[in-house]
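Exercise 7. Given the components listed, write out the predicted structure of the assembled complex. Treat all entries as one system.
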Amino acid sequence: MGDDAVTAQAIIQSLASGLLMGLLYGLIAVGLALIFGLMDVVNFAHGEFLMIAMYVSFFLFTFFAIDPLLSAPLVAAALFVFGAVIYLLVVRFAMRAKANAGMVQIFSTFGLAIVMRGLAQFFFTPDYRSIPQSWLGGKTISIGGIFLPEPQLIGALVSIAAFAGLYFFIHRTDFGRALEATREDPGAVALVGIDKNRVFALGWGLGAALVGLAGAIMAVFFYIYPDVGASFALIAYVTVALGGFGSVFGAFAGGIIVGLVEAVTALVLPPSLKSVGIYAVYLLVVFIRPRGLFGSM
Amino acid sequence: MDKTFAARRRRDLIIAAVLAALAALAPLFVKDVYVQNILILTLMYAALSQSWNILSGYCGQISLGHALYFGIGAYTTELLFTKFGVLPWFGMLGGGVIAALIAMGLGYPFFRLRGHYFVIATIVIAEIGLLLFQNWEWAGAAMGITVPIRGDSWLKFQFMRTKLPYFYFALALCCLAWFVTWWLEDSKWGFWWRAVKDNPEAAESLGVVVFNSKMGAAAVSAFLVAIGGAFYAQFLAYIDPESVMGFQFSLLMALPAVLGGIGTLWGPVLGAAILIPMTELTRSYIGGSGRGVDLIVYGALIVAISLALPQGLVSLFSRTKAKNQIKGATR
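Answer.
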């Protein structure tokens, strides 16, 4: 390795990997943004939703030999149910708090995260697991001398497709319109016969399904263990806040920025400091725009 | 000031004095080192949570990054002691002052942020601090610092044979943090903070210097937490970044206040008295299996208390206090 090791080629290579990872970060984070936009609640168990999705993908592979790529829709469906149930069992009651509402939401979802981690340890043991052989695992594709790992590439494409689908869903379907209406005025929608609780439950289901999709793909190239969510949760919060809380498009843009910044930081700083770049960019952005890049003022 | 308020404050002071006296007698009956350990940690977290409560409870600026100040207190003390031979007492004060200055320096840009943007900024800055200390070779990087043992002495604030001096220091710190809160509650600062928390725009228009009062709360809060960090470093005689600056400390400072009653005088002490022994006991009795049962119990309790008692455990004791809280929370 000479001084010219950081050539244009290497920079393009790491930007390309950063972009792929960034699209995945966007997909992890968008569920958080969706739920926040809908009802002003930050789900502090979001990372644990990701962890559950990874385990579901792992077990579908281990017991039924379904490749993670095929099982991704199943994982998303399972997480949809899970998210809706969590809303009905816990979050619905947190919304009723008359005092300290913000605190109650933070700590009830945070307590939930701890319970989920404990349950994962109890049932799945703290062991690190991985999916040894999958269609995509370990394969790379070369485009013009730039090597792209196939799982990340597919993940990025799924992320783009998911965002496109979500856009269509919110703007073109009845449920999407109900979602938008409820977010704008939960009191008024009740008058036209929309059940607020049902919309919220479906919103939680949808948010969880999106992070489920991300988890299914990440199960191919990340270790799966009970605490895995914690390492991605903070990145997801920063991604959402960077884009602006509540903005679905902001989460997409935020994800790409976070992925690129992480890749660039890894080029100039020791690998152990790569997150510092993300955090510094977050602080810089909110100091200039206190509501994130695309948040409403 | 109306009479009932003055009477309540006098009553609070008397209750605190009685509780402190009873706590001071506890070592006469508790000889078991394991139990003494739990008592020390409980007092320490009560003090930390009481300090956190000043900024996050009274002033309403929810910080989940106070681990930064805890770590700075610990590192200032041990770096000065091991590299320059400065006595821990000076390191402790130095750490407190540095933490307060950093809190004000950070407050300058941070206090423009609202809600979740502020909370995430506090998490992120503590995380940056953690990563920097993990990569700072001179400060021992991820390996940390082992405090050299020079024999039991109050001068060097280290004791190998007995835990009692640590117990009394933790008790003193807890009393100090409580007394500072008690005193500030009735000062102009206390009124400013409540005004800032309830409605910053209205407070500003009434002449409260919103920005300065947030800065004051941040400085007092960070100073006391750093003293706690210095204590913890001497108590363990070993520190590394993860074990004094990790995110779990930010949470363990917030949780007692939240469960006990955020923004109340007694919330943090009450919360710590229940939460910390429970954490330690579940960890040693059912956590040993390594199967996460302790986490399940602990997490479920946090969910249950925050849903059932949004104003914390203190609301069980005093109806009038709970009413005041509702008034405050709903403006």
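Discussion: The CA atoms of residues 45 and 112 of chain A lie 6 Å apart. Residues 18-228 of chain A form one domain.
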